[in-house]
UniProtKB/TrEMBL annotation:
It holds the Pfam family ADH_zinc_N_2. Transmembrane segments: none annotated. It comes from Lentzea jiangxiensis. Keywords: Cytoplasm, NADP, RNA-binding. One of its GO terms (cellular component) is cytoplasm. Homotetramer. SUPFAM superfamilies: GroES-like (SSF50129), NAD(P)-binding Rossmann-fold domains (SSF51735). This is NADPH:quinone reductase. It comes from the Bacteria. Residues 10-308 form the Enoyl reductase (ER) domain. GO terms for molecular function: oxidoreductase activity; RNA binding; zinc ion binding. InterPro entries: ADH-like_N, ER, GroES-like_sf, NAD(P)-bd_dom_sf, Quin_OxRdtase/zeta-crystal_CS, Zinc-ADH_QOR/CCCR. It is found in: Cytoplasm.
Amino acid sequence: MKAIALTEFGDAEVMSLQELPDPLLGPDQVLVEVRAAGVNPVDYKIRAGHLRGLMPHHTPLIPGWDVSGVVRAVGIGVVDWKPGDEVLAYARKDHVQFGTYAELVSLPDRMVARKPSTVDFVTAAALPLAGLTALQALKVTGTGPGDVVLVHAAAGGVGHLQVQIARELGASRVLGTASPRNHEFVRSLGAEPVAYGDALVDAVAEAVGGDGLVDVVVDNVGGLAFDQSLRLVRERQRMTSIVDGPRALENGVVNTWARPNAEQTQWLVDLVAAGKLHVEVQQTFPLAEAVKAHKLLEGGHVRGKIVLTV
Ligand SMILES: NC(=O)c1ccc[n+]([C@@H]2O[C@H](COP(=O)([O-])OP(=O)(O)OC[C@H]3O[C@@H](n4cnc5c(N)ncnc54)[C@H](OP(=O)(O)O)[C@@H]3O)[C@@H](O)[C@H]2O)c1
């Protein structure tokens, strides 16, 4: 099969299109013909070698944790899936090697959700990792009816889904940080846009009124946004960070590290099919242009998601 792979860690150019053996199909796995692979910041962090202290890595390494495609074959222990089924998954495995930037990928069946026929493959591939992160971060904060929620990076891959999911969970107001060029986009998702930067604490306090505090904060950015969030959240146990685990733990804030979850993936994609969750895809690239896709995402200002088509 053809796949994007790397044998050394570094900048985007370490990746190239290669001919590699087809993946093995384990007893509890499905073999998926990849139609699209979502691109996430974790992919360029892995490519640069930043996760080597966290998980075992092996080369040649095929990046990619998001996938949509069609089941080609199933392992001998699989009963729920059959060839021809259209699926999507957040496909993070315990070892980093056989990712989704490829024509074929094998996945444990426990990660796989069914793609509704009305959701296209590109949208389906953009959703799992970012959608699960958005949902799981909101769940650890107990986001529910009546909450006022602050979402950082509300125009980004995780944030643009999170503002919509927060409303779906019953939040009464969602404020979303973004640069001014994204304010109309953030408003269209159901959030009140606020500009990030030094004036953020005052801007949020003024927008919410009263004691100037919010019930829930999701820090999708870190650094200054993390510090400002500590000043804006009413109770620290209702703040979570998806980017700075060590600082979260030091400050009594909950850390979120998204986990594969087929049931939640199904809930998310069914929301998309029902027209209740919009997945914004800024741009697609053919698989062979993964280098360009990484460079664009690493710029830090993509609106929504980037997806590779296979
Ligand atoms: N813990 C986990 O499980 C987990 C899961 C997913 C992602 N993450 C991490 O979470 C971070 C966000 O992921 P993502 O996929 O959403 O990234 P992304 O799509 O690349 O985020 C891009 C967005 O960030 C916004 N942005 C840039 N600087 C900002 C700032 N200072 N304040 C507010 N917004 C800012 C940009 O908006 P403007 O163009 O308007 O500036 C852009 O829309 C990444 O570091 C990623 O690795 C962690």
